[in-house]
Fold this protein.
Amino acid sequence: MKAFANLSPATLAEAVELLGAARANGEIAYPAGGGSDLLGMVKDELVAAPDSIVDLKRIPGLDSIRVSDSGTAIGGLVTVDTLAGDEGIRLRYPVLAEAAAAVGTPQLKNTGTIAGNVCQRPWCWYFRQGFDCLKRGGDQCYSVIGENQQHAIFGGGPSFIVHPSDTANALVALDAEFQVAGPNGERRVPASEFFVLPRDNLQRENVLDADELLVGISLPASQAGRNGAYRKVMDREAWTHAVVSVALTLDMDGDVCRDACIVLGGVAPIPWRVSAAEDVLHGQGITAELAQQAADTALEGAQPLAKNGYKVTMARALVRRSVLEVSGTA
Amino acid sequence: MADPMNVVGRPTPRLDALERVTGQARYSPDIRLPGMLYARILRSPHPHALIRAIDFAAALELDGVVAVLTHENCDIEWASGDRANPRMLFNNPVRYYGDAVAAVAATDRHTAEAAAQLIAVDYDTLPFVLDAEEALEPGAVPVQPGGNLAPPFGALAGGGAAVPGPAVYERGDVEAGLAESDIVIEDHYVSKHHNNAQMEPRTAVAQWESGKLTVWTPTQGITNCRDDIAEAFGLPYEQVRVICEYMGGGFGNKNQCQDTDLIAAELARRTERPVKLELTRKEDFLSIHGRWPTSQYYRVGAKRDGTLHAIELTGYSGMGPHIKSSGDIAGIDFYQCPNVRKTVHTVHTNVTTSANYRAPSYPQGVFGIASVLDAICHEIDMDPVEFHLRNATRQYRDATPYTSYGLIDCIEQGAEAFDWSGRRRPAAVDAGPIRRGTGMAIGAFTARLGLSNAMLRLDDAGTLWLHAGVTDIGTGAKTTLAMIAAEAMEMDLDRVEVVWGDTDRSPYSVGESGSRTTSHTGFAIVEAAEDLKRQLDERGPPGPGEELVAEASPNPTLDGEQRYSFAAHFVELEVDTELGGVHLTKYVAAHDSGRIVNPLTATSQVKGGVIQGIGMALHEELLYDRNTGIPVNPGYYGARIATHLDTVPIDVVFVDTEDAHGPWGAKSIGESTIIPVVGAIANAIFNATGRRIKELPIGRDRVIGAMS
Ligand SMILES: Cc1cc2nc3c(=O)[nH]c(=O)nc-3n(C[C@H](O)[C@H](O)[C@H](O)COP(=O)(O)OP(=O)(O)OC[C@H]3O[C@@H](n4cnc5c(N)ncnc54)[C@H](O)[C@@H]3O)c2cc1C
Ligand code: SF4
């Protein structure tokens, strides 16, 4: 492993400057939150060897959660565990609290930041084993003709990763807005536009540039978010990413669904919102049949590879069950 | 009921528990010696390739690099690494992804790593074959010069050249037996490469002083490890010392000497400095070991009344390039049956070499045979418990009596504890997506007797020093043996001090493999204690500065009998047919292990074995990419090693048997614990769903596939 400098900027501006300077000098610098994903990748040489790592943990003011009636602001350095345990989040945005609680293990939740969790790199096993695949600048995707049981059934090609972050699915379901700091100041990106498909950008999973940082997340003060859940299915019961997950919010007026948001995790290179399925629910009384119809609609157009067709069955069941459960119909 | 005893039979915490949990216990990776160098291994990126040239000049030029070993400058054979073909520390051609190509010693870890990457290797890649049956097809690329079919392991174990061919066992007339059967089930089962995944990766530290070599290494047998090292370096045994004070598990993965021991020793010899060689978790998964994958073809016949009449098994075990272990597929021996034929091919493939993992040849075999027998029960509408009471082995291979026999008790008492009659329902009765089912399977594992050694010293302070050549791989052996010594000497346990894990300070031991430490070494302790008590009677307690010493090296044998431990496991689970998940809700493991010396650690052994079996049944597998021959998931995360949340409370039942042999009738426990697990779970999944899944692991993809 090549030696690198560990830089600890004291301000956000300094951090952005360090990243920008590295970029201008043709050097490689990575921002680090908890480092729980980044350091492993650097050690395993899964990403280009950095000249420096910019440790964001010393920057003050990015580690708080402010919940209010007009909306909620979450600092990028808030740990996944803090998010999962925050009273206000649990009350107003249960889907997010549950998604955060579903991450890996207590150790990972204590170490990992929300920004880092959202920006974690793919966990495709070829990528993590160091194959010289498309994602890494090589000329083929090994999964598409190989062991693709964990891969995408939606939005795949030319890479078939699934987005690994649990919290990302909840944030998309909540219509969150991401604050991005860069050399030209700050910009705000809706969660629905933050994540990018491989066909749009093969090298990155989101819109951030190499010298940009995710510094905060704001959530609208929506009533809908108050009724939600995150359901995650894994290959073992801890310490691993979702095979399939569902982030769901339901705004109910008695038995009738006023508004719904359904985002599938583990099925696509980005959190996969299924609007057509939401439409099935809008304005309707929730019944078992309707939930099934929404589930069927959600999985319409899925394009499984040779070994991941089972995800279609799983996702369908998970959508149906979550809708019934969260609507109180089950 | 066996007579109550003072120490033996009482639940006793491990003597070294405090050291272990407070970080005081010294494991091999903790060893640091003055001037010590660090070593790293460069491994093959190809599953099969000829090395045309290796250039390590650039590595040697790096500041801090002291030595580089390759197949060109080091021709040490790793004798216990392969019994069929010579296996060198560095081989050309390389025959699996991860095969060692070179080793570097440098003043620090980072330099060693950097240097390894500076070694330029020119490979001629060769075609490769991953699957045992494909490897036997005409035209398959030869993995070894003699072809891909290895000689039967039994022939190899005898030493000398052996002819390639399957291992065949036969009794009765299987074709006639099948023809006479009322019902015949013909089926195919597949098990996968399953890593031991023990907590502690391999590390070896080697040091030469005045021509004597000391190696600190996590080994399951300090004596055979020392002997192997001595032979590799042409040294008399007393010139080699192997130390393993504490180790973090092995489960068969650390039997004998490892290539890491020899590489560290050779680097230390050349550099004249101590050398520490550490493997990463990934290397530990890749470089050696794991349970071999199998393909099992059965034809099994029974009479309408449920009497088993014929079993034919033709199996293929993919061993990797080297034959380190038997490659057997076992389990059919648990049944009485007049007509049996078993043909097992051990085959060379271009994957990680398999070797021993807890009850090496059993859980995969039981998955197959227990499933087929369960299918027969279903077909003739017979309760599996009744079927097993009728057909379970009464004599070893229907010919040799057992020294003691508690299998029927295990089945009956286990079924009782489980409430089998209350819980068992016909197959696939639940209508919803969540379906509950029950299943059972049985097991047996040898409780060997054999040569062992123990020394007891009673000093003038009244302390009893027990010298035993064990390493305590996690089984609690140190505690068990101290308990046996205390019992035999009629002393309190806290007056016993164990001297272990060092070939210079503790006597010969067969090693902690084959579930035999308690039987072998315990027997020697009892015999040494008899001698010591005789001396005490004659001379009285030792005076100031004196000691009484007794040593015993018994080699008990059995005459016309077989000694076995037995087990019957019962499981209840729920299958989520839509999400593909299997959730265990109840587990009962009934065991006949003779007298239980320490119920606390014995119970832990059972739980540990069951948990490993759950992982093997439901999610663990070392998965190879077929296009490149490279495994995609080496490591805890990728191979989905079972976590605490994947387990279920496990009720352990020990049935009472009296065995005339071993230390007060103690038999074996470590390995029998994992044997029935996979079979019992697979059968419960059938009972829940009415679908039989014939390939491991039974993950969500396979459950959903079977349901559709
Ligand atoms: C065994 C294992 C199991 C896991 N299981 C799960 C799981 O079940 N669910 C789940 O969601 N995650 C899982 N993870 C991922 C884990 O949650 C992430 O590693 C963690 O959340 C990342 O947070 P971090 O702060 O440590 O990020 P880091 O490791 O510091 O960074 C991760 C990535 O994001 C970039 N980055 C970090 N901060 C910023 C920022 N502010 N702006 C822009 N880019 C940034 C880094 O450069 C890096 O590329 C698992 C990880 C492991 C190792
Ligand atoms: S899915 Fe993406 S990351 Fe995985 S092998 Fe294909 S290109 Fe690489």
In short: Residues A 122, 124, 126-127, 131, 133-135, 141-143, 151, 159-161 surround iron/sulfur cluster (ligand 2) (CB under 6 Å). Chain A has three domains: 1-56, 65-121+167-220, 226-327. Chain A has a mean pLDDT of 96.
